[in-house]
Design a protein that fits this description.
Blueprint: H1 19-30, H2 34-45, H3 50-66, H4 70-83, H5 88-100, H6 104-117, H7 122-134, H8 138-151, H9 157-168, H10 178-187, H11 199-209, H12 218-224, H13 228-234, H14 242-261, H15 266-281, H16 290-299, H17 307-313, H18 334-351, E1 356-357, H19 363-374, H20 393-400, E2 415-420, H21 426-434, E3 438-444, H22 447-459, E4 465-469, E5 482-488, H23 497-506, E6 508-518, H24 525-533, H25 543-554, H26 574-581, H27 591-600, E7 605-608, H28 614-622, H29 632-641, E8 650-654
Parallel strand pairs: 1-4, 2-3, 2-5, 3-4, 5-6
Antiparallel strand pairs: 6-8, 7-8
């Protein structure tokens, strides 16, 4: 899908061209034989044949790009484009060069000209969509990518799906749109995109359709029972808005009341299963009123004999078996519920015994282990968006940090990767799918987390991962070195974070890189405020205790000052709330800690990594000097003035 300047459409030129020369030139450029390529380009440019001269200009453009001279490349390509101003491939090459030079508006304009001449070219549409995304024009980007997906199939389809999902995540709709709804429903069925980001655009459409403050839910439930978007959404994506949580709780209450009065219709039972999947994913985090408890007590005894009651109770608890009822399989979500709720439990219980294990005895580590045995975190459905598919890891890291040395990786057919503290495998899945030519070892202290991770990895047909049950403090017992180590959100849960960092450093191969994420003291300041308000002798540990503590926080008088918490996706599940607010062991770091640790371990700071480019832009506005982004003292000053910069964590790379 990526646009390149190579190869030139040979049909533009006469067949009398010296094809042997051209083929040799292609090979030289591909293999970076710059001197040989330069000689052949000169020979073409000195030819008396106009066609060969034009071909020389074309390859001079590619040569200039290869040698880091994009403006020279643009000048050379313009000579060719002026002779073939209508040719879409050449126009796309020109647009690509404008984009390389940062001239995004020009790039879009030229690509649009190419699109006019070849309206069903998915490469052109994809390119246009990417540039609009860079310009933060997500609506325009989405439209281009949607058309591209309609004319494209095969291996690039999932990439277009991921890009459209990323665009939709930035959009909110003020009226219903049938094409967008249909696309959202299709995207919600995908497994290799970031589904979590689709909740807000989808709910913005639903808000146009329903009055979410209405107290009488009977008519709404009837409509929702056949609303494909609503059912697809709540059965696949965890809601992360408090306003909608209140609405969903009211709807659940209304459906329970209906089931206590009469048998539900087929559509209503399917709707109840959709709520059941939603609440299974959020681990039944929503509060249960006294009136609901009373109705549940009445209905529970007949659960195994009444399909309607079985479906309604799925909204409040996890069933371990499916009903023996001939109408069960007629429900649209019955197979998904059976697979994701009932069968997954059996699979994970079997997997728990299958991991190689390295024991550990530190009592503080055991407390953290027990937390994640009870509450594996995070639960996920769609795999995270791939950072940059179809390129080797060394190229990816070079684009992030041009100053990096990749000499260590040259000649290696497969990089050895360690995911230290892999949890439920979300990070593992993303890395494995993005960089399949790697061998991954994933370790964690929780068998429950590992069994969840292994099940999800198997479902995605990923085969280059080995899971090991161990603490990262014992990682040396693996007796191997790693080219890449990722450790996200783990070191700050160790008794001594630097000891964990040192253990990882000892198994990092010479020239290898580490990606580390740790909590920021400034970024977590509001979390400490919450803990001060909810000061108790013991942290909530059980499912019910965490759910009750969360609800008490939401309805407290202090809530208006604490609403920043509601922006965290973690706040909308039991395991996430416990990890976010009530962890058994947590340290908070600052930038001097990063600086000191890197000095102690003799590691070079490569840079921070963010989800978007905005923090880097703001930093460069304050510190415009070249290379300032590598100065941790400047980052310390920046964070002091912008304390939300690392609201979630510091994420940095080192070598």
């Amino acid at each position: 899908m990526a646009c390149t300047l190579f190869p030139v459409p040979i049909k533009l030129f006469k067949k009398s061209l010296a094809e042997t020369l051209v083929n040799g030139l292609c090979i030289d450029l591909h293999n970076s034989n710059i001197v040989e390529a330069d000689l052949k380009i000169r020979k073409l440019l000195q030819s008396k044949s106009t066609e060969q001269q034009l071909l020389g200009h074309y390859y001079k453009s590619l040569y200039s790009l290869k040698t880091g001279k994009p403006q020279d490349a643009l000048d050379s390509l313009l000579v060719v484009v002026n002779h073939f101003p209508q040719h879409p491939t050449l126009l796309l090459c020109l647009a690509n060069l404008h984009a390389t030079l940062g001239q995004l508006e020009k790039a879009v304009g030229v690509a649009m000209e190419a699109h006019k001449r070849e309206p069903k070219n998915a490469d052109i549409l994809y390119f246009i969509g990417k540039q609009w995304m860079k310009l933060n024009e997500f609506g325009k980007a989405y439209k281009a990518l949607l058309v591209a997906r309609q004319v494209c199939a095969g291996e690039y389809a999932y990439l277009l799906d991921a890009k459209r999902a990323a665009c939709l995540a930035q959009l909110r709709f003020h009226r219903a749109s049938e094409p967008v709804e249909k696309d959202l429903i299709k995207l919600l069925e995908r497994s290799q995109i970031e589904l979590a980001s689709l909740d807000k655009p989808a709910f913005s459409i639903l808000k146009c359709r329903y009055n979410m403050r209405e107290s009488n839910h009977s008519d709404t439930l009837t409509r929702l029972a056949t609303d494909r978007l609503f059912i697809a959404l709540i059965s696949r994506v965890i809601n992360t808005e408090l306003e909608l949580e209140k609405w969903l709780c009211g709807l659940r209450r209304g459906l329970l009341h209906e089931a206590s009065q009469r048998a539900l219709s087929k559509d209503e039972m399917n709707l109840a299963l959709a709520f059941g999947l939603q609440n299974f994913m959020n681990e039944y985090v929503h509060p249960i009123s006294a009136s609901e408890q009373a109705l549940l007590s009445t209905l529970s005894p007949v659960c195994n004999h009444d399909l309607s009651v079985f479906c309604v109770l799925s909204m409040y608890r996890r069933h371990t078996v499916v009903p023996d009822d001939p109408y069960w399989e007629a429900l649209g979500l019955s197979s998904r519920y059976a697979r994701e709720v009932v069968d997954s439990l059996k699979t994970e219980q079997k997997l728990k015994c299958n991991f190689d294990s390295v024991g550990f005895s530190d009592s503080q580590i055991e407390a953290v282990q027990n937390q994640y045995e009870q509450n594996p975190y995070p639960r996920w459905v769609g795999v995270p968006a791939h950072p940059r598919p179809f390129i080797p890891f060394e190229k990816y890291i070079e684009r992030l940090f041009p100053q990096i040395s990749t000499q260590h990786w040259q000649g290696k057919s497969s990089l050895q990767v360690l995911i230290a503290g892999c949890g439920t495998g979300r990070q593992v899945a993303s890395f494995a799918l993005t960089f399949p030519a790697t061998t991954i070892t994933a370790i964690d202290i929780s068998r429950s987390s590992l069994s969840y991770a292994k099940r999800r990895i198997d479902e995605l047909d990923i085969s280059n991962v080995e899971f090991v049950h161990m603490s990262l403090l014992d990682v040396g017992k693996l007796a191997k070195n790693f080219d890449v180590i990722e450790c996200g959100g783990v070191l700050h849960h160790l008794p001594d974070p630097l000891a964990g960092f040192r253990a990882l450093n000892e198994v990092l191969a010479p020239g290898g890189v580490m990606k580390i994420s740790v909590y920021s003291k400034l970024g977590r300041k509001f979390i400490n405020t919450v803990r001060d308000i909810q000061k108790t002798d013991a942290l909530p540990e059980t499912h019910e205790a965490v759910r009750n503590a969360r609800y008490a926080l939401i309805i407290s008088e202090s809530w208006p000052a604490l609403q920043k918490i509601a922006k965290f996706r973690s706040f909308y599940t039991v395991s996430g709330t416990r990890d976010l607010l009530y962890h058994s062991l947590e340290h908070q770091m600052d930038i001097p800690w990063i600086s000191t640790s890197l000095e102690v371990l003799n590691k070079q700071f490569l840079g921070f990594q963010f989800r978007t480019a905005d923090p880097i832009k703001r930093f460069k506005a304050s510190f415009p000097d070249p290379g300032s982004e590598l100065d941790l003292d400047k980052w310390k000053k920046f964070e002091e003035h912008h304390p939300d910069t690392f609201l979630r964590m510091y994420t940095f790379w080192c070598q």
